[in-house]
Amino acid sequence: MQESNEQARRLAALGDLRKALELAEEMGELEVIEGADPNLEIGALYHFSLQKKIPPILLFRKIKGYPDDHRIAVNVRSSRLFVDGHGLDRVQALRKQRRKNVQPIPPVMVETGPVMEHVLTGDAVDVLKFPAPKWNEGDGGKYIGTECMVVTQDPDSDWVNAGTYRVQVHDAKTVSIFIEPGKHGDVIRRKYWAKGVACPFAVSVGQAPVLGAAAASTPPENVSEFAAAGARLGRPLELVKGKVTGIPFPADAELVFEGFMAPPEERSVTEGPFGEWPGYYTSTGPAPVLDVKAIYHRNAPIVTGSPPMKPTYPGAYYGIASTSLLRAANLWDELEAAGVPGVTGVWKMPGSGARFMNIISIRQMHPGHAKMAGLVAAGCGSNAYLGRVIIIVDDDIDITDPAEVIWAISTRWDPKTATDIIDGMWTGHIDPMLPPERREAHEMTNSRIIIYAVRPFHWKDEFPKVNAIDKDYAEAVKRKWQGKLKFLDGT
Predict the structure, then answer these.
(1) How many CA atoms lie within 13 Å of 18's alpha carbon, on the beta-carbon side?
(2) What tens digit of pLDDT does each residue of 434-451 get?
(3) CB of 387 within 8 A of CB of 448?
(4) What's this model's pTM, rounded to 2 decimal places?
(5) Labelling 152: which of 240, 250, 427, 478 has CA 20 to 30 A away?
């Protein structure tokens, strides 16, 4: 009973940011920081927190230069609040979560909600009143949108899309939104521009953890992130319509900006640079702006932050909410949905971020099985954008251990006969290897390498045997000597 109550509380926290902070405080997983400077100091403390595999939630209040009750919370989704298992067990747990409620639960519209406690329009609109850190020294300005939901609606249907895109503050009534070409937000805004009208947007910069996860996911076109989040919670989310655009957003959001984005040829600003998740400053230039016509916020609003940092930090990778592990779960599901048999694991190599390197283990069942897995992984939905390396290994390799993966490459891969290189794949401005001439010409393509570090199928039974202790015998010896030898107890 106690366990079920705990699960119920965590599920409630997933659907309510303030409940999440309350539960984190009870668990000792909340650090309250007062008086920090939003100019680099908050970003530095966030950097430090990511040196822990499972970082605590940091709640900044009494932020220098802002009202005392305006707050910033970081590490909410990557804290111990939502951790479930380790290694591939964690990826499997994410897959199970995705399957618990297969059918999306559409949101419901309500007349009002906590986000309507303050409605600012006209001269009262002032984005500068809300805390927006300069996270990194090389950033081109203040970024209020890093763990946000950028919401718009397809002009030709009832599809409401929400994505996480970085949002930079420029002045009291202007923010810019960086959206890579081909992303759903970009596809939709171009439809409006083609009709000769500005695209309406609502930008939530503080919301429930489940919505942060949904906005960062990759559902198919015409599938609402709000419906996907409802399925995760087992109940419909409540949305309200913006008074200016009619775009819906969460009724319990903390802080929402609403307005219109004209095409860049009509109005643009210099956006960036910004320290992106590959670990580099790679994208800056003209970007269309959102003219903010209304601001909605709760009493004592909380801005949620999750700025991408260098992907070598443990906390940027291992947290349950890590985009790396979410994308590993997605890729595993997509491989199986495409009919690839015998998939025993999908992993993201630490240091490669959420997209650049994918490790897939298979139990080889037929000739061409490894190539089948590699080619599907190269082009399927969750992995099509900004990839670089796909490594296929046998099922005896612990793909969560970089040394095991390197061993498989070193001993089972022939560079000449066991490699595919594919050109013309989808990449983006934040790709540090996108050449300047392609960047300027908006040619957003790169190449992928698939490394087949598996025993050659046609003589795999004759492949040299591995020098390792039998697993069952190893466990028996451990049981015999545990408690008698300190090194076996990890002390």
Answers:
(1) 10
(2) 999 998 888 999 999 999
(3) yes
(4) 0.86
(5) 427
Kindly list the distances between the CA atom of residue 179 and the CA atoms of 94, 176, 186, 372, in Å, as whole numbers in the listed order. Answer: 27, 10, 6, 32
Do 322-462 and 2-305 have the same topology in CATH?
no
Cβ burial 143-172 (10 Å sphere, 16+ → b, else e): bbbbbbbbbbbbeeeeebbbbbbbbbbbee
- Pair of tokens at residue 94: 């994410």
Cis peptide before 273 (omega within 30 of 0): yes
Which residues, other chains included, contact 103 with Cβ-Cβ below 8 Å and sequence gap of 6+? 231
- The model's pLDDT over 30-46, given as tens digits with 9 standing for 90+, comes to 999 999 999 999 999 99
Q: How far is CA 245 from the centre of its chain?
A: 27
Q: Which two tokens stand for residue 378?
A: 């190269």
Calpha distance 356→384 (Å, rounded): 11
Q: Which CATH topology does 2-305 take?
A: Pnp Oxidase; Chain A (2.30.110)
Classify residue 234 as left (phi > 0), alpha (psi -120 to 50) or beta.
left
Task: Return the bridge partners of 34, or none.
Answer: 61
> Could you tell me which of 156, 239, 157 has the C-alpha nearest to residue 202?
239
pLDDT tens, position by position, 332-362: 999 999 999 999 999 998 888 888 999 999 9
Predicted confidence at residue 102, as pLDDT, reads: 66
Domain residue ranges in the chain: 2-305, 322-462
**Cα 241 to Cα 116: distance, rounded to the nearest angstrom:** 10
**Which residue type is seen at 240?**
V
